[in-house]
């Protein structure tokens, strides 16, 4: 039962990241930011540097440079 839950969790996590990237490609940056943040919250132990960079880029493109810089600083610390 635990194995099935882990597979489902991994699929959900992968879908969130795929969704975030698609939103970013579609220039729906607010939706992308929400999806990236949800991904980061459930993928705490993964290497997230690239994800944080993508999230910062969405903040930047939505004219929130303060959050973009803050997110980039977070990526450096990870």
**Which residue ranges are poorly predicted, with pLDDT under 50 across at least 5 consecutive positions?**
1-9
Biggest beta-sheet profile: none
Number of strands: 0
Determine the mean pLDDT.
86
State the distance separating the first and last CA atoms.
Answer: 32 Å
Helix and strand element order: HHHH
Report the portion of residues in β strands.
under 5%
Rg, nearest Å:
13 Å
Number of helical elements: 4
Helicity level, as a percent range? over 70%
Shape: flat
Structural class designation: mainly alpha
Describe it.
The chain is mainly α. Helix 1 packs antiparallel against helix 2 (29-42), helix 2 runs antiparallel to helix 3 and helix 3 runs antiparallel to helix 4. Helix content is 82%, strand content 0%. Mean pLDDT is 86; it is low at 1-9. The protein starts with a helix and ends with a helix.
Structure at a glance:
This protein is mainly alpha-helical. It has helices spanning 2-25, 29-42, 49-61, 65-77. It has four helices and no strands.
Key structural traits:
78 residues, mainly alpha, flat, disordered N terminus
